[in-house]
User: Fold this.
Amino acid sequence: MGFFKLIPEVQAYADYCTLAFPCDRRDWQDTVCRINLALDNIVTWSSRWQVSLAPDKTQALLISRRQDITNLPAPDIRLEGRSLPLQRSISIFGVEFDA
Assistant:
């Protein structure tokens, strides 16, 4: 999986992939752009290697220590043209993460 070394925010294991992006409030929109660029690169890679993605199984979670995070505009994160709604919690290898 040499391709994923090109995107340092990506951790891949078997058929599972996790992206994690740190974000400062001032860089909110820039971070959303970086996330979408990484997802576009993964879509390009998967198309080249004939790997199917499952946007309907893809989840997005925003974790923050800030109480006013809900005041920020909802990020428009997209995979294969589909908007990914933010989840309140996700499970990664049996470990539950919540916002």
